[in-house]
Amino acid sequence: MRLFSPLYDRVMAWSRHRHAQWYLGGLSFAESSFFPIPPDVMLAPMSMARPASAWRFALITTLASVAGGLLGYVIGAFAFELIEPLVGQGGRYHEAFEQGRAWFDQWGVWAVFLAGFSPIPYKIFTITAGVLSMALLPFLLASAVGRGARFFLVAALMAWGGEPMERRLRQYVDTLGWLMLLLIALVVMLY
User: Fold this and answer.
1) Count of beta carbons in the 10 Å neighbourhood of residue 117
2) Count of alpha carbons within 13 Å of 45, Cβ hemisphere only?
3) From the first residue on, what is the mean pLDDT of each consecutive set of 10 residues in the chain (191 residues)?
4) The pTM is what?
5) Where are the domains of the chain?
6) In sequence order, which residues have a C-beta less than 8 Å from that of residue 6 and are 6 or more positions away?
7) Residue 65 class from Cβ within 10 Å (0-12 exposed, 13-18 middle, 19+ buried)?
8) CB count, 10 Å around CB of 175?
C-alpha cells in the first residue's frame, strides 16, 4: 500500500515553496520553546531539494532555534507558573523536566550543548536553564554550538545526497515508512 510516497511528494513540493525558508525559521523558533515537531523535518527535505542553499537553510534554522531557546529561557525564568502544570508533579512533561534538571546538576552548560545536538527535546533544557537562572552567555553559546552542529550536519548530509538521494529515497519511502511504523509498534508493545 502506497501511503508514504504521496506524503513524501507533498513534503518535497513544500520544501521548494518560495516561502519555505520563512516556515523553516518559524518552526525552528517555536520548537525551541514550546512546539513538539523538530525543524529537521523541514531542513532535511529543503537541503535535499535545493543543495546549493543548504548552508543558508542550516544558518536560518540555527539562528531561529537559538532565538526560540532564548524565549524558552525567558519562560523558565519569568513565567514558569504558567507551564508548571505540565512539568510539575503529575504533569505530562514532569519526567523530562526532572531529567533535564538532573543533567544540569551533573553537567551544567554541557547539558544545553548535548540537548541542542541530540534528539532530546531541546525546549525542556531551555526552560530548565531559565528556571535555574543559568548564566545567559554560556547558555546562548552552548545553544548556538550544539544546534548549529546538528543542523549543519543534517544540511550537509542532505545536500551531499541531493537529487540522486531524493530519487532513491522516493523509490523506497513506502517500505521504509512501513518498517518504521512496525518498529514503533514493537517498541510500544515491548515497553
Assistant:
1) 18
2) 19
3) 77 84 93 86 89 95 97 90 70 73 82 83 87 92 95 94 82 82 85 73
4) 0.80
5) 15-162
6) none
7) buried
8) 10
